[in-house]
């Protein structure tokens, strides 16, 4: 099923928080998508989603939506998100600004549709990458072009065979 976890400060308190989701049993349904929406600032206040690949290799679709969120009535969106993927050693392994300028933009759109993700407009400034990753710990980091700020959504999808 689909689930949502909300985090908020008591009595209007603000700050940085973390929600974690774990798959516990091997025979259980797999956790195939995780996403979070938040305010993207500058410097240390960017939006970061951590994820783990536990198999030898896994294909993933990672997206950063800003402008696309306006279609869902969200105000104050990050108009031009930049998506960077890092491994546990801090090495950047992928980066995207404006998903439709990717060499594999058509494949990203097809995979997104197969996964049930909402569509990105072809000329949008939203960001996405399609990667095959080995076992390890990764972060997807979302910032704004030119130190812009606003609300963004970062999504990580597992791409199973047949969804490519």
Characterise the protein shown here.
The protein is built from one helix and six strands. The protein has 164 residues and is mainly β. The chain is 7% helix and 41% strand.
Short description:
This protein is mostly beta strands and 164 residues long. The chain has one helix at residues 105-115, and strands at 33-40, 47-65, 81-87, 92-97, 127-144, 150-159. The mean pLDDT is 86.
Report the strand count.
Answer: 6
Largest sheet: 6 strands, antiparallel
User: How many helices does DSSP assign?
Assistant: 1
Compute the separation of the termini in Å: 22 Å
Spatially, the strands of the biggest sheet line up as 1-6-2-5-3-4
The run of helices and strands is EEEEHEE
Radius of gyration from the CA trace? 16 Å
> What is the share of helical residues?
under 10%
Average pLDDT: 86
Name the beta content range: 35-45%
Low-confidence stretches: none
Anisotropy-based shape? globular
Sheet/helix structural class: mainly beta
Secondary structure topology:
Layout: E1 33-40, E2 47-65, E3 81-87, E4 92-97, H1 105-115, E5 127-144, E6 150-159
Antiparallel strand pairs: 1-6, 2-5, 2-6, 3-4, 3-5
Descriptive keywords:
single chain, 6-stranded antiparallel sheet
